[in-house]
């Protein structure tokens, strides 16, 4: 006997659909990220570049949740970890590029493999702008552990792209070193970056959630998600930029396991659906308030 209550839209959803509040809600999410979280940059353009990193991260999460409510809450948590280190290090471009790497590699898992052809371009810019490019190569190379038994040639194609990206990164790195004074040959940062209280608090939250996902949903998670989460979780205490990368990998595994299993259960789905439409209105109001108060936040 099916005792599940049929889903019935309420007034917030009915009028929200008429006013297209879902589009305003998601635009509000990115406005909050750019102005509130990354608003510490001296120019709005740099804040927007950092926000684009979170935008591509969300696109990488989208097929795992199909729910803007949970997906954007995870996104806010990831950005809360990243905002302090990214602003302090002037790391908006590497953050944007790593978000794009997540978008490309999750497309690789979701049968949108055409995205991986952009990886050499991505690593050219990554090598030119930052000395931690090898961490991005490691992140991408770990996706080779996904078997793809139904497409045996796909891993070979990705391996060739990873090799090409590595060579391009090395060549760019050498040219930049020879033409720029003080450009370090060290693949990791020597000037370790401390984290503020907000970033540390949300980092602890994401570490706990990641450990829960690895334990409870270990068999349901794919190998790239497991390995990247474990690797960057272990590296995250050493530097704020490493914590920033971990926050992105943690967002992926949390979306693919914890959120997927919660939202798509028959009993919990109506709750999340109703909450999503309330959330759109709330986040829209918050964004308006933040935009009006931007001079105070700056």
What topology emerges from the helices and strands here?
Blueprint: H1 11-18, H2 21-37, H3 44-65, H4 68-89, H5 92-109, H6 119-129, H7 133-141, H8 154-179, H9 197-216, H10 223-235, H11 240-263, H12 269-292, H13 294-297
Helix pairs in contact: 2-3, 2-4, 2-12, 3-4, 3-5, 3-11, 4-9, 4-11, 5-6, 5-11, 6-8, 7-8, 9-11, 10-11
- Alpha-carbon distance between the termini? 57 Å
Shape: globular
Overall helicity: over 70%
Estimate nothing, just give the exact number of structural domains: 1
Count every beta strand, where a strand is a DSSP E run of 2 or more residues.
Answer: 0
Largest sheet: none
Succession of helices and strands: HHHHHHHHHHHHH
What count of helical segments does DSSP give? 13
> How does the helix and strand content classify structurally?
mainly alpha
Q: How much beta, percentage-wise?
A: under 5%
**Gyration radius over CA:** 20 Å
Mean pLDDT: 82
Uncertain segments:
181-187
Describe this structure in words.
Helix 3 packs antiparallel against helix 4 (68-89) and helix 6 (119-129) packs parallel to helix 8. 73% of the residues lie in helices and 0% in strands. It is built from 13 helices and no strands. The chain has one domain (31-297). The chain has 298 residues and is mainly alpha-helical.
Please name the defining characteristics of this protein.
73% helix, 0% strand, mainly alpha, 298 residues, 13 helices, single chain, globular
In short:
The protein is an all-alpha fold and 298 residues long. 73% of the residues lie in helices and 0% in strands.
């Amino acid at each position: 006997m099916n005792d599940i209550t049929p889903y019935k839209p309420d007034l917030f959803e009915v009028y929200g659909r008429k006013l297209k509040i879902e589009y305003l809600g998601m635009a509000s999410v990115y406005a909050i990220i750019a102005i509130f979280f990354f608003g510490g940059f001296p120019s709005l353009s740099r804040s927007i570049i950092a926000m684009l990193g979170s935008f591509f991260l969300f696109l990488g999460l989208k097929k795992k949740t199909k729910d803007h409510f949970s997906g954007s809450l995870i996104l806010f948590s990831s950005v809360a970890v990243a905002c302090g280190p990214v602003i302090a290090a002037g790391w908006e471009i590497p953050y944007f590029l790593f978000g794009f790497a997540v978008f490309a590699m999750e497309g690789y898992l979701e049968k949108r493999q055409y995205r991986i052809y952009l990886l050499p371009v991505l690593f050219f810019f990554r090598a030119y702008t930052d000395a931690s490019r090898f961490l991005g190569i490691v992140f991408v190379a770990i996706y080779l552990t996904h078997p793809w038994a139904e497409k045996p040639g796909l891993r070979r194609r990705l391996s060739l792209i990873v090799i090409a990206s590595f060579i391009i990164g090395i060549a760019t790195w050498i040219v930049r070193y020879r033409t720029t004074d003080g450009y370090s040959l060290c693949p990791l940062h020597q000037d370790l970056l401390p984290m503020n209280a907000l970033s540390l608090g949300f980092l602890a939250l994401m570490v706990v959630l990641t450990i829960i996902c690895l334990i409870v949903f270990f068999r349901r998670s794919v190998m790239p998600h497991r390995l990247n989460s474990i690797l960057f979780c272990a590296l995250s205490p050493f530097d704020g930029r490493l914590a920033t990368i971990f926050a992105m990998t943690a967002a992926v595994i949390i979306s693919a396991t914890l959120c997927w299993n919660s939202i798509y259960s028959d009993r919990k789905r109506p709750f999340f659906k109703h909450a999503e439409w309330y959330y759109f209105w709330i986040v829209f109001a918050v964004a308006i308030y933040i935009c009006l108060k931007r001079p105070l936040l700056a």
